Amino acid sequence: MAEAHQAVAFQFTVTPDGIDLHLCHEALRQIYLSGIHSWKKRFIRFKNGVMTGVYPGSPSGLLVVLVGYMSTTKYAKIDPSLGMFTKLSKHLPISKYVTEEGQRVVGGVLIGTGLWIAVTFVMRNVLKYLLSWHGWMFNRHGSLNLKTKIWLVLVKLFSGPKPMLYSFQSSLPRLPVPPVKDTVRRYLESARPLMDDEQYKRMEGLAKDFEKNLGPRLQWYLKLKSWWASNYVSDWWEEYIYLRGRGPIMVNSNYYAMDFLYVIPTTRQAARAGNSIHAIMMYRRKLDRAQIKPLMVLNTIPMCSSQYERMFNTSRVPGVETGRASLSPASLRNQSAFRLIIIKKYFKYHIPWAKARSQFFSRGKNKQSLDAVEKAAFFVSLDDTEQRYDPENPVQSLDSYGKSLLHGKCHDRWFDKSFNLIVFKNGTMGLNAEHSWADAPVVSHLWEHVLSSDPVRLGYTEDGHCKGNPHPNLLGPQRLQWDIPEECQAVISSSLKVAKALADDVDMHIIPFNDFGKGLIKKCKTSPDGFIQIALQLAHFRDKGKFCLTYEASMTRLFREGRTETVRSCTTQTCDFVRAMMNDKREEKLKLLKVAAEKHQDLYRLAMTGDGIDRHLFCLYLVSKYLGEDSAFLKEVLSEPWRLSTSQTPLQQLDLFDLKRHPEFVTSGGGFGPVADDGYGVSYIILGEDLINFHISSKHSSPETDSHRFGSNIRKAMLDILDLFQLDNKANNK
């Protein structure tokens, strides 16, 4: 077999004259280069570990302290150890071999190093104390008060120069546990617009009983965990929300990211795949070296970077009761060769997949091939369909594109991998990402790098090929070998049937909303996110004739190992505005809109600063289960369905995209499947000043939902709310 010959560095034959060795010099050369590369990576990791470990101090800072300290004490004729080293030297056997000058130098080094450690320790703890204050979040939108400005200066002063990706991890504060009383109060406030008087009175009774009796005992355990663990939520959230989920992760958990909306840099599939893989590996190189800048709010306030650690060489491994996120040791080695993965069908339901994995894929060549997939950096799917935005048929083309990225043909993606790079036949591409290891902003950070590198820094030749010449000795693809018996094929066919039914039920609709964007919303003196969320509430009420529990994802990455929190966007204030839109006067609508927008912003700030509702209630519920204590209040709260689940995809690296000069290089954002069988999933991305892309999903099987109808209602709601401000009239009056 050809691949077997490629795997050895030498051959030998036995002759009457002895053993005749035939060395392959190119193979030995590659082994040598791999070793050099490996040792370089180890050194870089060690160096970065030291730099991160002493941050906000630095080795150069230590050198400055030592030189300055020693120079001062030498010319001032001062014993830097204040006699301590002389006293200690009497008890040290080495002291008689060290001159008095040498003792002075050693004492200076010890005292100087101690001083540097003390300064670094103080700076780190002062920085952690500063970052524990979140009053800056509650400034009026678009302005900073004097206290916040002084605080920002202090944060910059104690942050140190040139931080690397993980520099701030030890300085980030821990996620606080909110008081039970506050969480219960906020929950009741969020539940009020969704209940009639009788329902609310009953829930209020359950809540007050929980707050008085069981709640404080459960809270004690959470407090204990918050003191001991880095984050009292994240590990339980990953295990119980993601890894213990027994349903298909395709559609129900995984999410996708799209290519540029209007252009395809090349129509050659292999070339697009080559450049994209190159860009991803360049990103990985920076990630290995911690050279990616940490995400900073206001260019000053760091956010947690822990989720980046499992971006590559990670796969979700299914189990009968719970899965696990497996980080392959291969992530610590050089991956210089690519493998062509050939497998026709795949399991989409975790319990059958876990059992079949144990029975059919735990030994022999099946295990070797499966290991090759799960230990790979990421998965590449060369799709045989053509997808792109077609101006002649915008609705159907984008809907088809979104569905293909979300689930494909159900057997041409490896949904358990950290992410799949999907390249279509006509050169369009996208990502499908598994959710347990990280949230969408982390994947978006990688994707922004790929999109900005592909057409500009890497580029293509005039005929659409990658620039440069292929390496003459590059190893060819290796076909993975599988042995699928009939019994296994029956399980595969059954799982594929389940997956296809799930995929066919997805009703996907994507809207490039270009009537207006962030530019006009800002003129309304309203938060763009608040404006859109209120528009979604108005659209939903018009769509279904009622309000529903609404999930908006926010980040808690201001805290160490923070992930997400929920903003309950359906508020009493928002409902009042929506009802007013039915028949009230314009002035009353504007007044209620302002109140609703301010309420939404307050909820978003509370969620980001650790005072959200849902993660606290989730952890209280888990503790109650561990203790064997039933809570009618917690059980009802956590069983309430999210019939409208929303999320904003942030554009984080604005410096990579010059949308004013190159508006054609605008991304489409990404989306996810519906959370409830009778609900909607809505993702949106705000691009530049004039474009907002919406990704809407629901299920065909639900008589209550229709993604295209909801999309029309969203467009109408956005335009109706903007019309309240009469911006055209104001411009004319000027």
Features:
734 residues; Fumarase C, Chain B, domain 1; six-stranded mixed beta sheet; five-stranded mixed beta sheet; 24 helices; 49% helix; globular; carnitine O-palmitoyltransferase activity; Carn_acyl_trans; transmembrane; CPT_N
Overview of the molecule:
The protein is an alpha+beta fold. The chain has 5 domains: 2-51; 55-161, no CATH class; 163-245 and 613-640, Fumarase C, Chain B, domain 1, CATH 1.10.275.20; 255-504, Choline/Carnitine o-acyltransferase, domain 2 (Chloramphenicol Acetyltransferase), CATH 3.30.559.70; 507-609 and 641-734, Chloramphenicol acetyltransferase-like domain (Chloramphenicol Acetyltransferase, 2-Layer Sandwich). The protein is 49% helix and 12% strand. The strands form 5 sheets. It has a 6-stranded mixed sheet. A hairpin with an 8-residue loop joins β12 and β13 (564-568). The longest helix is centred in the first third of the chain and has 32 residues, at 100-131. It is globular and about 90 Å long. The N and C termini lie far apart (79 Å). Mean pLDDT is 84; it is low at 1-11 and 327-349.
Mean pLDDT: 84
How helical, in percent, are the residues?
A: 40-55%
Distance between the termini: 79 Å
Number of domains: 5
Strand content: 5-15%
Number of DSSP strands?
A: 17
Shape: globular
Largest sheet composition = 6 strands, mixed
The CATH topology of the largest domain corresponds to Chloramphenicol Acetyltransferase
- Enumerate the spans where pLDDT stays under 50 for 5 or more consecutive residues: 1-11, 327-349
SS element count, helices: 24
C-alpha Rg (nearest Å)? 29 Å
Briefly note the structural class of the backbone.
alpha+beta
According to CATH, what is the class of the largest domain?
A: Alpha Beta
- The CATH architecture of the largest domain is 2-Layer Sandwich
